[in-house]
Design a protein that fits this description.
signal, 48% helix, 494 residues, 7 strands, mainly alpha
């Protein structure tokens, strides 16, 4: 097994060296533009006049009416018409982190577009925490929604609002929402200080709610059937408390939050599942985020977080004795479970951030018998980006609208049904089935959408029915925005 991994890594290095010699084949700036544009296709609510994804229309305009609260706006997380706040907040945190770490590499127009994408979500999330001791965690009945194939502009399924009131627990959703507000407050600090202050002030309040009412939101019996199995908290709520506190520390520089992540490290399980990062598990991202304090600020009381971040990075190096991350034959990072590209994009994002932290502090990474410098981490990240953009066994871009060959039958209601602009007549719940079952390409191109992608064998069948592979999600795209921003400015890693 070890020899097989080593041979794969040698092939990976050979591919990288060829790319470096011949130069970049990809237009990373174009891909960056499209990765941000995708979010306009996921918008819920009243669309502005400058909406560029113009096959979309207004939707969900009555969201919140049944609880006498305006809950319009936000994003549909994937190819359905439900607003799940847990992954939406995570998406927002990563979009903001992309701007914080890589915004300086973005063309000014794309930096503005990225901030607009963040604000579309934060404006909505502010509404979900507008009432004391209450958080709205979801809008839309997913069972009824998933039984229909209809445009968001037509949806006539129940827009059930799922609510958690104190002292019932919602540490995960509230903790992630606090993280999103704190990260976004940093992203908006220079361009809109008033909005930044609002976000930060709200973040501290929402984090207090999360910390006081400890537990998973999906453990509340009154909402469990609506949030599970879609976005259940499978990995526990503790990581979101540390994650929210770490972002508040980054945003405020307050010792209160530094002490929190230091003193609660063991009780909240900071050393658990340190090789995972996604909408449900924040550990690897938490460790990279906190490592900045150690690498650049010499806060050695947080050294254990850096040790965990180092350990995670070493698992990505096949030559390392601690290696256990799998790569497909074509060089894609693979983790078991559906929608594999969510792992590839989040891990790539962390690789690039950690490389920057190491470089700024003039340090290298020790992985057993080998030393890893920032450039090596960036090469692995670049290989993932290039794979997604088309350097893979199928020669297919897994970003819709990028290159001439990309998935054309993605699992996405709005994309697969006729646009309301071209077909203004109402299409009822079950009437959309003929479009779902059609063998024709989707009529509307959801530009910039990254699909779930191939599995461990690099195989991808362009099938609307195979949602694990063909459905795009906001949390696949969000970290890719940051990665593309870096390579748009640094296309040739040497």
């Amino acid at each position: 097994m070890k020899n097989n991994i080593s041979s794969k890594f040698m092939l990976l290095l050979l591919l990288l060296s060829v790319e470096i010699i011949q130069g970049s084949y990809h237009d990373y700036t174009d891909a960056l533009t499209k990765s941000i544009l995708f979010f306009e296709g996921q918008r819920s609510g009243y669309l502005p006049q400058d909406q560029r994804m113009n096959w979309r229309g207004h939707s969900g305009l009555g969201d919140g009416w049944m609880v006498n609260t305006d809950l319009t706006g936000g994003y549909y997380d994937a190819g359905d018409n439900v607003k799940f706040n847990f992954p939406m907040a995570f998406t927002t945190t990563l979009l903001a982190w992309s701007v914080i770490e890589f915004g300086q590499y973005m063309p000014p127009s794309e930096l503005r577009n990225a901030l607009v994408a963040i604000r579309w979500s934060t404006d909505y999330l502010l509404k979900t925490v507008s009432q004391p001791n209450r958080i709205f965690v979801q809008v839309g009945d997913p069972v009824l929604d998933h039984n229909c194939w209809e445009r968001p502009e037509d949806m006539d399924t129940a827009r059930t609002v799922y609510t958690v009131d104190a002292p019932n627990p919602a540490s995960d959703v509230a903790g992630e929402t606090a993280a999103a507000f704190a990260a976004a407050s940093i992203a908006f600090r220079s361009s809109d200080p008033g909005y930044s202050d609002t976000l930060l002030r709200t973040s501290t309040r929402v984090f207090d709610f999360a910390d006081r009412n400890r537990g998973a939101y999906s453990d509340n019996l009154n909402i469990r059937d609506g949030v599970c199995p879609y976005y259940c908290d499978f990995d526990g709520y503790q990581d979101e408390l540390l994650w929210g506190a770490a972002w508040l520390r980054r945003a405020t520089q307050s010792d209160t939050y530094m002490n929190y992540i230091q003193e609660n490290r063991q009780t909240l399980g900071a050393d658990d599942n340190i090789n995972e990062f996604g909408w449900d598990n924040k550990h690897a991202g938490l460790n990279v985020l906190v490592s900045k304090e150690v690498l650049e600020g010499s806060v050695y009381s947080l050294q254990s977080y850096k040790a965990s971040a180092d350990s995670f990075m070493c698992t990505l190096i096949p030559e390392s004795s601690s290696s256990h991350i799998e790569y497909s034959p074509g060089g894609l990072i693979y983790k078991p479970g559906g929608s594999n590209l969510q792992h590839a994009t989040t891990i790539t994002f962390l690789l690039l951030i950690y490389a920057n932290y190491l470089e700024k502090s003039s340090q290298i990474l020790n992985c057993g018998t080998i030393s890893v410098n920032p450039t090596m981490l960036r090469k692995i990240g670049k290989r993932q980006v290039d794979y997604i953009l088309g350097d893979n066994p199928k020669g297919m871009s897994y970003m819709v609208g990028y290159s001439n060959y990309y998935p054309s039958k993605i699992h996405h209601r709005g994309s697969s049904l006729p646009s309301i602009k071209d077909h203004p007549q109402f299409i009822a719940c079950r009437e959309g089935s003929i479009y779902f079952n059609s063998s024709h390409p989707n009529p509307n191109v959801l530009v910039g959408a990254i699909v779930g992608g191939p599995g461990e064998d690099d195989v991808y069948d362009d099938s609307r029915d195979d949602f694990r592979k063909s459905e795009p999600t906001t949390y696949i795209n969000a970290p890719f925005v940051g990665a593309l921003a870096y390579f748009a400015a640094n296309p040739n890693i040497s």
